[in-house]
Amino acid sequence: MALAAGTGLYLTRFERGDWAGAERLLCDMVAAYDQASPPFRVGLLQTRRELAHVRLHRGEYTESVGELRSIALECHERWGDASPHTLLARFVLAEALAVAGSVDEAVTLRQQVIDCSARVVGIRPKHVAYLRVALADTLIRAGRLDEAERELVAIAPAYAAAESGVEATLTFRSTLAAAATERGRHEDALHQRTELLPQFVKRYGEEHPRTLDIRFETAKLRHRLGDSAAAMAAHRAVLGARTRVLGEEHPDTIKSREALGGAT
């Protein structure tokens, strides 16, 4: 019961962007596992996966990728490809690889996850659609825009349905904006980002890292479109917020600092 309560508290902290608090709680949970308990290994693997995921968000890319590789391998060895444990471990590993810059490997892993999902019990069409959004995002990072746009067009009908969920729909629309940006359709992308911002604020809050990502991308677009004054003001605000929320040395804070220098 205590571990179940801890998991709920962790998710609350993670959702609101309190990643330092989430990490402390997960470390306590790992220490609390009873190794004599039959479900020990499953629970510990899940908690280690979430801990690595949190550390990824905190900017510890190399450590997160290494830990997630180990977890994905152990899940595969214990349960095989057609297991929710293996699927989720590989999904999070692919995210870590993409963020860390290993985009080609991340694309391959994303595609493997989608292929295996058809054999995993409990996977619904909306889940597969979300996996394909993640693939499209990674393809954009890899510069493979034609493939990314084909994925987005194919799954667009799924996001017209109410059951897709607010978070999934916001992720889909943000990925559409990223594709427009990479195509050089900056006015279109700015319009999309501007529409998304109040919805991210409503869903996550003013200074949640995901909201700050939207504000950062919007500032970059304003700079590209020649509105340097607005871009500088926005970058300055995002830099202040990222410094408070993520810390001085987080990679996103560093990006904001560099962008502000480039906008002057």
Structure description:
This protein has 264 residues and is mainly alpha-helical. The chain has 13 helices and no strands. It has helices at 2-15, 19-32, 40-57, 61-79, 84-100, 103-117, 125-141, 145-155, 166-182, 186-204, 209-224, 228-246, 251-263. Helix 6 (103-117) runs antiparallel to helix 7 (125-141) and helix 10 runs antiparallel to helix 11. The longest helix is centred in the first third of the chain and has 19 residues, at 61-79. It is globular, with a radius of gyration of 19 Å. The chain starts with a helix and ends with a helix.
Task: Give a nutshell description of this structure.
With 264 residues, this protein is an all-alpha fold. It has 13 helices and no strands.
Give the helices and strands, then pairings.
Blueprint lengths: L1 H14 L3 H14 L7 H18 L3 H19 L4 H17 L2 H15 L7 H17 L3 H11 L10 H17 L3 H19 L4 H16 L3 H19 L4 H13 L1
Helix pairs in contact: 1-2, 2-3, 3-4, 3-5, 4-5, 5-6, 6-7, 7-8, 7-9, 8-9, 9-10, 10-11, 11-12, 12-13
Structural class estimated from helices and strands? mainly alpha
Output the helix-strand order: HHHHHHHHHHHHH
**Nearest-integer average pLDDT:** 87
How would you sum up the global shape?
globular
According to DSSP, the number of beta strands is 0
